């Protein structure tokens, strides 16, 4: 051992500093407010699948527009603000230093809330990129990147200016989350703007799907999982008054998790037109993910060894234990769903909805509730207003999760079984897809009941925390003292390698985290982009006509991808039901892809030519007129609103920039061709007894629908 003496409180002058609780309080309030809004929107969307008229014939209240609003509100507004609440409380305390820049902290808070408000306005208005969990248009993408990087800089600088020698595990997860989400967001959001609120993804078809689910899966990983693991590593030991179970396990958990997670995105695209090798990589790494995921779960649960008696009495620990258990369940189910034989049953069904909500309601929701119940008495310097109310919240919330997920698991099995069942004669037993939809309405209603129970518990929490706040006195700042970093004793080089190489060096930790998460994406994407055999071209596949392109944008605006896929998998049941399975070369001009991830309605990839134009017109005016019992809402405004053709030239130019082979100068005659095709559809509708102007949006949508899947011979 070194002869250098350990400095003592008597021999070193302590630095005095303050923790700022105002930023913590503000993010906590935003968490509660936007959590309530996000859950209310989710409940409305759930009940619309039982009672479609709950959209009140208003476009901005239609399921396909508010479902993205619900997911964005819950992920980025509720969970995001919950993460930032815990972050700004825990980071200064584990690093024994105030946040480096209060100005950046305030900027982070107000800019993030402004982005959320922008999303709440723009998504119901139909401004969307159609990329799941990344639907916001390009001005918001730029704003998100700026805000996110500013927060990353603030955290790294705080870590550099710490007054402890080693960086605690919670901070590793925070830094890795910020670094990875920045990378994912920037790569996935590369798009070509054509107007203030309209852009096209630079990727197309197979490549766009791969990038999207590389982002989509890892948005779940690095926005909903790793940040909350960091919160678990701080708040669970605090609540239990126990050290974390295993320091070495936390190291293995951290590095294995961030390295393996990034590879798993392709398991969302099994049996699709994605190259087989990429699907296999996604499956292999998804299965391996169970080890580090459960390592984290066990590290959390084992922290409570010797303290399980506290769980019976402490409502905070109750929420945290159920949260960690839900995390373990979801991270077991994820690898299981990546197995191709299981995925063939579950994908596109409500099983996936159940799986996602075990994580969202159980892991993210309950951990957030536990943290809020732990924080508010400390922020307002008084005990929690009502422990009984908090316990009521715990039990009704748990009941809500059960009532939500069990009907959705059941619905998933019912859907898949009905889709795949044949008669003894070899015919589909349920050839009408609508039969598989109406059978689920009771289960959808039960899901709504579960969501209502969960929401009741949330409202009870709001009242409890509000009463705690008004009966207490807010502690705006807390004074603390610590030795300066340069006065802290440094041990010899025999120290454990991870402490020496990572836990003293925040920049090294940041760089190695970036390398760990970048490897998987590069290996999956670069060959898919550069090796032509991954996406064989098909000579008969031609660019969309100007009217079809306009109709496709209406399809995107209305969120049709939320309920309909455009990807027929090579299963006998799907080929019998929908037509020839989808080929990768058919999507080379799709910016962005429209493969979808959930079949509430039938797949549409071979819908072209299946029905006359009049069927589509009547179906959009009143779906039940063509499909009795349909749960699809009416889209009457498409029959009334004029098509904006002033954007046609810019759209064709954008497609040319992205490599779509329109002839040079075609952008100047595109509208003439558009009008010609409009009149042809108008005439066919007239022959069917439907009189309408040629310049209505419904005409463009019909043009696009009639084109789908017709480029190759079935």
UniProtKB/TrEMBL annotation:
Family to which this protein belongs: Belongs to the heme-copper respiratory oxidase family.
Catalytic activity: 4 Fe(II)-[cytochrome c] + O2 + 8 H(+)(in) = 4 Fe(III)-[cytochrome c] + 2 H2O + 4 H(+)(out)
Record gene name: ccoN/ccoO
Domain Cytochrome c residue range list: 546-709
Pathway: Energy metabolism; oxidative phosphorylation
Protein known as: cytochrome-c oxidase
Organism field: Dyadobacter endophyticus
Cellular localisation: Cell membrane
Enzyme Commission (EC) number: 7.1.1.9
Membrane topology of the entry: Multi-pass membrane protein
Transmembrane segments: 27-51, 71-91, 103-122, 142-160, 167-187, 213-235, 247-265, 277-294, 315-332, 352-376, 392-412, 444-466, 507-530
Listed cofactors: heme b; Cu(2+)
Pfam families recorded: COX1, FixO
Superkingdom of this protein's organism: Bacteria
Entry annotated with the keyword Ligase: no
Keyword terms of this UniProt record: Cell membrane, Copper, Electron transport, Heme, Iron, Membrane, Metal-binding, Respiratory chain, Translocase, Transmembrane, Transmembrane helix, Transport
């Amino acid at each position: 051992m070194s002869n250098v003496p350990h400095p003592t409180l008597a021999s070193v002058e302590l630095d005095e500093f303050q923790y700022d609780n105002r930023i913590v309080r503000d993010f906590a309030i935003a968490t509660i407010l936007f959590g309530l809004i996000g859950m209310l929107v989710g409940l409305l969307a759930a009940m619309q699948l039982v009672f479609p008229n709950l959209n009140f014939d208003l476009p901005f209240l239609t399921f396909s527009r508010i479902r993205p609003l619900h997911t964005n509100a819950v992920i980025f507004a509720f969970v995001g603000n919950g993460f930032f609440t815990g972050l700004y409380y825990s980071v200064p305390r584990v690093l024994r230093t105030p946040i480096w820049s209060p100005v950046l902290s305030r900027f982070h808070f107000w800019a993030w809330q402004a982005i959320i408000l922008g999303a709440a306005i723009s998504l119901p208005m139909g401004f969307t990129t159609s990329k799941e969990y990344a639907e916001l248009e390009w001005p918001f993408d730029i704003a998100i990147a700026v805000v996110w990087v500013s927060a990353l800089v603030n955290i790294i600088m705080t870590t550099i200016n710490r007054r402890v020698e080693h960086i605690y595990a919670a901070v590793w997860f925070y830094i890795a989350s910020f670094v990875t989400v920045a990378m994912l967001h920037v790569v996935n959001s590369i798009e070509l703007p054509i107007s203030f609120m309209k852009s096209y993804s630079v990727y197309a078809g197979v490549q766009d799907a791969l990038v999207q689910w590389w982002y989509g899966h890892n948005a779940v990983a690095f926005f909903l999982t790793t940040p909350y693991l960091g919160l678990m590593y701080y708040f669970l030991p605090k609540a239990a008054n126990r050290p974390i179970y295993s320091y070495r396990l936390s190291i293995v958990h951290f590095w294995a998790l961030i390295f393996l997670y990034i590879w798993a995105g392709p398991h969302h695209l099994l049996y699709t037109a994605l190259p087989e090798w990429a699907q296999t990589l996604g499956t292999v790494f998804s299965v391996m993910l169970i080890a580090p995921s459960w390592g984290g779960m066990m590290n959390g649960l084992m922290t409570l060894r010797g303290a399980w008696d506290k769980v019976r009495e402490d409502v905070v620990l109750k929420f945290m234990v159920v949260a960690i258990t839900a995390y373990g369940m979801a991270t077991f189910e994820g690898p299981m769903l990546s197995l191709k034989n299981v995925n063939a049953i579950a994908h596109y069904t409500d099983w996936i909805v159940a799986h996602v909500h075990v994580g969202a309601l159980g892991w993210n929701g309950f951990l957030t509730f536990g943290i809020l119940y732990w924080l508010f008495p400390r922020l307002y310097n008084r005990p929690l207003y009502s422990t009984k109310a908090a316990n009521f919240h715990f039990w009704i919330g748990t009941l809500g999760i059960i009532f939500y997920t069990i009907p959705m698991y059941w619905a998933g099995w019912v859907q898949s079984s009905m889709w795949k069942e044949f008669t003894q004669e070899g015919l589909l037993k349920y050839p009408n897809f609508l039969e598989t939809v109406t059978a689920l309405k009771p289960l959808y209603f039960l899901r709504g009941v579960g969501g209502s129970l969960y929401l009741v518990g949330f409202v009870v929490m709001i009242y409890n925390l509000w009463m705690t706040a008004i009966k207490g006195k807010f502690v705006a700042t807390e004074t603390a003292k610590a030795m300066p970093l340069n006065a802290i004793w440094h041990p010899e080089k025999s120290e454990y390698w991870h402490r020496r190489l990572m836990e003293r060096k925040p920049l090294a930790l940041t760089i190695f985290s970036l390398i760990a998460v970048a490897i998987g994406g590069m290996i999956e994407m670069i060959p898919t982009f550069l090796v032509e055999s991954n996406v064989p071209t098909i000579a008969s596949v031609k660019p969309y006509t100007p009217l079809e392109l306009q109709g496709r944008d209406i399809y995107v605006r209305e969120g049709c991808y939320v309920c309909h896929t455009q990807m027929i998998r090579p299963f006998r049941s799907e080929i019998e039901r929908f037509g020839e399975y989808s080929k990768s070369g058919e999507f080379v001009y799709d910016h962005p892809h429209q493969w979808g991830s959930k079949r509430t309605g039938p797949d549409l990839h071979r819908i072209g030519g299946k029905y006359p134009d009049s069927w589509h017109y009547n179906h959009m005016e009143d779906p039940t007129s063509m499909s009795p019992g349909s749960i699809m809402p009416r889209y009457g405004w498409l029959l009334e609103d004029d098509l904006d053709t002033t954007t046609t030239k810019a759209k064709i130019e954008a497609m040319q920039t992205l490599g779509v082979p329109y002839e040079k100068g075609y952008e100047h005659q595109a509208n003439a061709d558009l009008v010609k095709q409009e009149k042809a559809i108008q005439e066919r509708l007239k022959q069917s007894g439907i009189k309408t102007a040629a310049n209505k949006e419904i005409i463009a949508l019909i043009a696009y629908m009639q084109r789908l899947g017709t480029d190759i011979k079935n």
